Amino acid sequence: MTEGSALIRGLEGVVAAQTELCDLDGANGRLAYRGYDIDELARQATFEEVAYVLWHGDLPKPGQLDQFTVGLIAARELPRDVVQAFRLTPRTTDPMRVLQATVAMLGMHDPDATDNSKPANLRKAARLMSQMATAICAHHRVRGGLEPVAPAADLGHAANFLHMLTGQRPAAAAVKAFDASLTLYAEHEMNASTFTTRVITSTQSDMHSAVAGGVGAIKGPLHGGAGEAVMRTLFEIGEVDNVDKFADEALATKRRLMGFGHRVYKAGDPRAAILLGLAEAACRESGQFKWFQMAVKLHKRIGDAKGLIPNVDFYSAPLFYSLGIPVDLFTPVIAAGRITGWTANIIEQHEDNRLIRPRGEYVGPKRRPYLPLGSR
Ligand code: CMC
Predict the structure, then answer these.
(1) What would the pLDDT profile of 118-162 be if each residue is shown by its tens digit?
(2) Probe ligand 1: pick from 262, 266, 308, 320, max atoms within 8 Å of CB?
(3) Which one from 140, 269, 313, 350 is the annotated catalytic residue?
(4) What does CATH list as the number for 19-219+328-351?
(5) Is the CB of 298 under 6 A from ligand 1?
(6) Has 313 been annotated as catalytic?
(7) 352 is annotated as an active-site residue
(8) Catalytic residue among 157, 262, 299, 350, which?
(9) Confidence (pTM)
(10) Is the CB of 305 under 6 A from ligand 1?
């Protein structure tokens, strides 16, 4: 290790890059993308506008948004080989593993695959945003023995996603809640998966390779995989009346509770506050209010007992569930939101790149001689 440098476990508090994308104020629980508060974006902007802001820097004017949206819609179809690969994939394969392989396959088909220029990266980012949504839904349909639903050119990104998943035209309230969720997941500074994409990019590798790495990182239960784990916790609890008993046992055994805690936010995750409202409305609307009631009760018990805050993945779980999203697609959906932030970070990293290469502190055996096989 370099003289004078100290080990910082989990790189806590380390600043790894300058960024114009995300202003995360952990002390005050505030978050903005390129200066636009997350609360206003979630309530008023579409996910397409958020993608535009992240990639181009400012909100689009009407003509710019029209042109941008036309490009996204045109990019929704998947290469035939990719759908064929879904048919050959074991039905039990976890959808995040399929998504990671899909991103790599999309790189094989992308005409700009190895071009790291900004114009090429903007084209690839748009294709990945559209194609990942189609791929998640197509794989889900195929694994269930159904045909993929073709993208609908008259629907926006969020509505088309729900349409491709279910084959039904989604209700306006569901579209708004899903669209806002994608916005809330779009970008979050130097989180583990975004950092992964930056590390890969820093070697001058390409966007698809970096995004495939990001998918692998976000899958873990300490990161985006927490949402699925929250829903499984709620299933385990089963009924609102069981929350106290569950919480007592969890606290007594020091169980790690999914959807609680955050490395940076200590006062509260602003995304969770917005998702709480969306989950309440969606659970009520779908007739599955008990999941929301259980979540609120658990939130209060764990907050009072340990001071732990619910993070973004806590209320998105009952929200996604009540929108009819299968539990093992929660993390792919989160990745379908985060693709906008990953790609914006990849573009930013390419523009001001230096190889990311930290040191390790060696704590293994002292130097010792090699012993030939017969002498050991
Ligand atoms: N349940 C129980 N105890 C917890 C939790 C939790 N969810 N989170 C933190 N703690 C305790 C932890 O046991 C430790 O206590 P002590 O000091 O007595 O050992 C203390 O709080 C500090 O925890 P830590 O693990 O050192 O904190 P960290 O900054 O390394 O971890 C975290 C942050 C998000 C990984 C962690 O809070 C956690 O595991 N949460 C559950 C998984 C989760 O919800 N992940 C989603 C994170 S946000 C969205 C995303 O990244 O996609």
Answers:
(1) 999 999 999 999 999 999 999 999 999 999 999 999 999 999 999
(2) 262
(3) 313
(4) 1.10.580.10
(5) no
(6) yes
(7) no
(8) 262
(9) 0.97
(10) no
What integer pLDDT is reported at residue 266 of this predicted model?
86
Residue type, 49: E
Q: How many other CB atoms are there within 10 angstroms of residue 335's CB atom?
A: 26
> Is the minimum distance from the CB of 283 to ligand 1 under 6 angstroms?
no
- For residue 285, the CA-to-ligand 1 centroid distance in Å is 32
Q: What are the residue ranges spanned by the domains of the chain? A: 19-219+328-351, 226-322
Span 226-322: which CATH code?
1.10.230.10
Q: Ligand 1 pocket, 263 CB below 6 A? A: yes
Chain centroid offset of residue 367 CA: 44
Q: Measured in angstroms, how far is the CA atom of residue 259 from the centroid of ligand 1? A: 9
